[in-house]
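Exam revision sheet. Question 4 asks you to relate a sequence to its structure. Input first:
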Amino acid sequence: MTNSPHHIVFANEKGGTGKSTTAVHVAVALSYQGHKVGIIDLDPRQRTTYRYLENRDATMKRLNIDIPQPLYDVFEDDNLARLEQLMERMSHGVDFLLFDTPGRDDKFARFVATRANTLVTPINDSFVDFDLIGQVDPETYKVRKLSFYAELIWDARKARAKADGTTIDWVLLRNRTQYVEAHNMKRIIAALAELSQRVGFRIIPGLSERVIYRELFPSGLTMLDKQHLGRLATSHLAARQELRELIKHLALPPTTQHSPDGGESALPNPKLVA
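Answer key, structure tokens:
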């Protein structure tokens, strides 16, 4: 890769969409692939991502184990220049720099969105979450107009393309899909497909609602740390496969693969998957 890392921004102005869980798992998955990964938590109040990886460090020390770990930090300032300094410092030697943004309107989240190469917006399959990006007719469920957030991202993508020719790959990640009533899901899928044609985002599968993700937080472990999780239930194996599919569909740029243990990478490079 070039000296400039690929920026992946996880952004959604609504909470409860699994944004931080997804960000951590993607960061660890890329680390397992042998990439150098950095991640910045832009929510100093919740600091979920920072605490997750802090717990991971503590587990490695407690169990005397060595597992892939991204570089991580939390931005606690209120100055854009300080954020740029942190981004520059975290960019040194990394292939991917990830950002976990707050579940609210935030000036720093807006800024990193304009610097994204891949912008990931996790949403749950509900029209409550859909309202973030578009408004639908209550009878036909056809999209009536874009919501403020979609217009914001649309403008950011146009500005970025004009400034340096970069196309921001906007990815809508459908999390927690299995508990949605089938008829309602069809309406949501149709509305998402219609809106994607209008504003140019891609729709990919995300992570299902599983208790295991909440249970892993105190240890900082992920579904990829199978050697430290004991015997995995069938549902846990399915969760690992979901993560594999998520990484594949993100279609991130390839880098030279170096597995941390000197063996085969835990997840395939998406560009090498047939």
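Marking note for examiners. Confidence is low (pLDDT under 50) at residues 257-274.
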